[in-house]
Amino acid sequence: MLMRVREDTYWQWADAQLHSRSHDEVLSDGTTLDVQVRLSRLGATQLFLGLYGGDGRALLEEYYPARPGETMTRAMVWGVDRARAMATGALPLPEPRRHRRRA
After folding, report:
1. What are the distances in angstroms from CA 27 to CA 1, 17, 71?
2. Which one, of 50, 54, 60, lies nearest residue 24 by Cα?
3. Pick from 41, 42, 50, 51: most CB atoms within 10 A?
4. Of the listed ranges 12-16, 71-75, 97-101, the one predicted with least confidence
């Protein structure tokens, strides 16, 4: 498996002190899914999902700081379903956000 090239969204999510559960999956075209859930320090269910091309580059990364009313299990199922749907074209990939530079 190739090394994933993480983008800003992943690094906003990353916190080695919080325990998380993860789901990794490789699709037949080489696309990989990385879905992770955890509880924040304040008890909120948080979700990260990433889609990565066969070359390891990020196709999409999303971070949800709160999934109100969802357990970690429910958030994981929702995230895996969403990632699969976007990876297979059943859901369109969101337009990339443009970072504006301030003068």
Report:
1. 12, 30, 26
2. 50
3. 50
4. 97-101
